[in-house]
Structures
1.
Amino acid sequence: MDKVIIAENLSLAYSNDETIINKVNFSVDSGSFVFITGASGSGKSTLLKSLYGGLKPDQGSLIVGGVEINGVSRKKLNFLRRHIGIVFQDYKLVKEWTIEKNITLPLLINGYEKNVTQNQVDSLLKHVRLKHQAGKYPLELSGGEQQRVAMARALSHNPILILADEPTGNLDDYSSGLIWNLLEGANTQLKTTVIVVTHHIPATMGIDYKHFHIEYGSINEVN
Amino acid sequence: MKSIKNHFSLVIALVSILFSIQVFIIVDRSINAYKENLANNYSIIMVAQVQIPEEKIKAINPLIVNVSELNPEGVIKRLNTKMDKKNLELLKITLPKFYKLKLAHFPSPQEIERLTKNLLATKSVQKVENFSSNHDNTFKLLLLFKDVISVFSLSIFIVTILLILKELRIWQFMHNERMSIMGLFGAPIWLSSAVLFRLSIVDAIIASFVTFIIFSYIDSSLWIARQFESIGIEVVVFDKVEDFSLLFAIAMLVSVLLASLILLGHKEEV
């Protein structure tokens, strides 16, 4: 099976501070569903950040979607990010854009045609149950609704990889359920690789998944 | 409403810059027109023992563009009743020659001094009257007026630049988040900064047209025309093609520079 992520002796650190992830080795198969857990401050989000090139490896090698993150050019990094869907804990929605336009963003960047874009956005708005709120701005929505918009945005361009940082943290059961369903759907139906950083793996997960746990800078697979 | 407010602050700053530039242009034109007017009315009187050819006088200093010999008939006529014809003829021959010299432009005090020296150094030139006292006062007044207006325009320009720098910080804050989010989804820099450049170009166009309207109105004002007429000059207050092109180019340059500075100062938040 193809590997979508390969990390060898990977160390991560913020500037000259203490090393957060220390010489870890792991790989992620294409089309798999992966959970990364760990205590607060263990480096889960830092690892996720390195996967979209937001943090360059301090040591070792990290290959994502065939692109070596260490020393990657801006052009190549942009190319990689165009094939990744990211869901942030703080949503990162453009406040001055409507939620419809926010969902359109990856499609716009990837140069999709207007009719394709509109159909895709309409379909996603239905999936996240926000069709009636399409013209609203992010700050007019609740946290759960904003996270559903962020989810729809991450899925809009059918990425090869979805990275989600605590996508259901502080959300009600209804919004959490919708988000897990969408992530499972993307993985099973579209064969998208999904990596989720979370404190708790939902008990209702209906698919096979891989589980990595981070502790003291090391990453271990949990069986 | 928020969008209008965003445009408003930069448009006001740009209009202030364009306004101060155009005012400076008008003052400069007025002073040049006034100097030309003064030059037309200003002349130097030279007295020579013998007649000197016009070309020879012109060769003394390139500032001299026109030479006319003053006719002594008028003075002699006044003496006519007291002298006999023979003596009058003798007087005509022995009387020194008076020349009126017209200059290319209104000279500076230094140019006048140099010209007077050149003329006096010429053989047979006895006296030169340059009316320097009157000339110096007028010239100094003109320079003072120009300096005051320059300082005034420069002050407006500096205050506006400070306003724009403040605006830059607001814009940086406003656009940084959106540009960072777009960057996280792989947008190239030209795409993530497109909104910023579009906004600044639109503001430059609006500011140019607002300035165009203001100065077109001033240009058509009879009161302004009468003020210029009263000092004997005619000034183009606003050239709708030349001045507008210049102001438009400046507005574009300032706003695109502003957008570029924001782009250079952009730090991706990840």
2.
Amino acid sequence: MRHLVGLFVAGLLMLSVQVEAQEPQNVVRDYQNDVEGDPDKPLRLRLKKQSGLEMGRMAVVWGSIGGSDTADSFFLGKTPDKTRLQFDLTALEVGGRVQLIVTAKDGQNVERHEIEVVYGENQKFWLRLKGSLVAQVTGVVPTNYALYVWYPGDTVDALTKNEFEDVVSNQGMEKPRMLRAVKGAGK
Amino acid sequence: MIRVRYVLIATFLVLNTSQTARAGDDQFNVSFSSMLGGASAFAAAFINYGALQACASDPSCGMPDDPGSGFEVGAGSCCDNNDDCFNDFALHVKRLDKALFTLYKNERYHNLVMRIQGIRMSAMRGAGSLSAAGAAVVARLEINIAKDQKKYFERFNVKTNTNISLLNDFLVELGALIENHCAGSNWYQRNGVPLYMHAKLTFPK
């Protein structure tokens, strides 16, 4: 009996560890055509903290699109200032083609951005947006897609355009050294 | 006993089933890991770029064209010719580099926070100027922002002074180490004090 309980506890621990390591904490699963496609009736997508994410907040959509489900719409909130967000889109099925349309409505101004990915392709792109933000995913051939929206925080918003481009182009750059040992007097 | 066994087995099966029901998630986990990896690389680039910029905008930091190096610090001729001494020295300098990097990184973060406050303040003033009632609200908000800012400065200075003290402890320790190898070299007075003074004059607000 003790062995059985021990085995049970060990199995339970293994399962919980596996789940924590693999799954994001803030995910909207739309495998069965649950989300409205009408951009005027979007589902609220809240950006939240995520373990493993060093900066800011994110939201995750794991969904299916195509066939009878022609679109999924998500409301990301309203931003009072220009806000930098990263959109990361992947199409997961053979033959699939997924489009993402992001609109930012600020009073009379409407800004629209469109991106498309095909099977196996992943695209990350940054947008600097202000106002009421809606993301709409569309597709014709049935396919699964993954959409990640990441807001790294207002310190990134405060970067100028040039500074931001420098950061993006220097991805993976090594830590600069402030001090180093040399022989002689140094300088 | 048998009932307990059944309950345990049933619970285990239910848990397993719930995992199986989410089997569709597996194909998404790859893209999730990739997204997190990209975000992590961006965060590292952002922090490094920040420290680099803070140092580059500070003339006394002496950042040369090569971003891979900053201050160069020597141990002195006595230590240069002694491998044990120079290796110990280089090891300690790495720790000093880390401490200085932290100070410059925090400095950059501070500058960005102040930049955000400036943008918000101007946006708020712009909105407040539209009406008398708006101006009164803005005036109240400005007082609150000023109070928050004061608290932020206090917290920043406490943290910064703690980090500078730590840097100085490292410098004193390194001075003592070099003194062991090369008595009378006064490394701390010649190299440590200027670095400490640089930090003390540059970072606290």
3.
Amino acid sequence: MTKEERRNIRTGLAFISPWIIGFFAFCVYPLVSSVYFSLCDYSVLSSAVFIGMHNYTDLAADEVFWTALGNTFFFCAAAIPLGLVVALALAILLNFDIRGRGIYRTIFFLPSLVPMVCLAVLWQWLLNGEVGLVNNLLNPLLGFMNNLFGTQWVAPNWLAEARWAKWGLIFTVIWGVGNAVVIFLAGLQDVPRHLYESAEIDGAGFWHKTLHITLPILSPVIYFNLVMGLIGSFQVFAVPYVLTGGGDGPQRSLLFLATYLYQNAFDFWNMGYACAIGVVLFVIILACTLLLRAFAEKHIYYAGK
Amino acid sequence: MSQKKAHATQNLVVYIVLTIAALAFIAPLAWMFSTSLKPLQETMSLPPRWIPTEIQWKNYPEAIEEMKYFWRYTGNTLLVCVLSVFGTVSSSALVAYGFSRIEWRGRDQVFVVLLATMMIPFPVTMVPVYGLFKELGWIGTFKPLWAPAFFAGAFNVFLLRQFFLALPKDISEAARIDGCSEIGIFLRIILPLCKPALLVVALFQFLFSWNDFLGPLIFLTEQRDFTLALGLQSFQSQQGGTAWHHLMAASTLVLLPVLLLFFLTQKSFIEGISTSGGKN
């Protein structure tokens, strides 16, 4: 190494030193000690006692944990693809040659600015079984359908019924999808016009262009959004916590891994057990991200690569 | 001619679908505002009324009164926001500079590590971090909410690095030849050129701190030290969901500064989010 190279390393490290300190204090240390505490009986108030795999065997036998795990997977499996489709559809519509694009984009974006607590309080009100706006709009529609088909559908009391509570949460979350709409729209506007033009000369219609030009070119952006959505959705906490008034919903239907982790850590002061849940959560997110990456490497189109 | 006609029908369909979707997206906000101005009985009237029979502005002072510490919450939130914004903008800019404008061996490998840290969810690290802050005696203070911002967030570094990389190398070279130090180049040449990017990072961090719920929930202990997000949640859980006109008034008040900030900075905002899309 030359003298200059060594000097550059020193300057470079000096500039990134705030991150290096933060990296050890808020990533490496907590991750390592999470793994260690997950093998301990630990309550912050007293010091940790090593108990081996005990917390994990307890988890495996804990029905509540399995409920939380199942709920988390259900939520991710529904909310991530639905959010993606809604955001993509809105972005594709906005990308048409229309007037007032800025206004529409602003309207779709606004809900994603709403602080999570406001969002949850608002939707608790909208989803109210008797006087909520959602059911007040839904009931006439269902009445009309019932007349037509002789069915007996009634609007559910969303957050009070175990069967519907998760869907209430999913609507709430999808309302805040505007961030992704803006990102997708930006990606769409980068698609070279001439590709569409030459496809049109070949007689390609809207769906053909979407499937064979838009989606492949947009695939890196879709991938990025998927990864971000996945990491965010697996740690869902604030919205269901506030929606349920600080609880976990009817028959624990809104209990998620992060909720159960929080309850164990700060309601029961069972920190070792909470860390074990955290480790499981982390491994799941890691595995899903790696899987997605392996899939993406085969299917993503990068311009110029 | 027929092609033109087909084009017009297509556009009409697009407008109709977009307008329905826009109504669905704006309706909850409109409903929130409408409820916040109604007398209590009218919040439960069937069928729902969009425009209150009498506009009741006094719901707002009443909600503030009932939240007890509303103005303290606001002050606490602003304090945390300002300190976090200052911390994250200064530290992220320094770090992003180190990852973009200086060539050093291993730089890009270390950057991959930084990106990987975005994958670690806060709930996973929060127990040991809580223990750490407890050791420091910081539980029940605002420090856990703003101090970590001084150690550069991965996402912000990523965003700023993109901007720094886009600036030509020659400007740094010229300054170096003139004998300018690295920190001088950073402060006097690069930073002034990147004001829009710094604004975007500041906005994102402000929003994050304003909205953050889990952090205040675990680190704050006294009700008068709560932030607005936590204060609103505690107001809602005391209420048990009855006085919806007050709850909606309080929610509107928490949302209002965010909306204001957005409309003042809309352009940088949308651009910031667009570039955050991982296009590279």
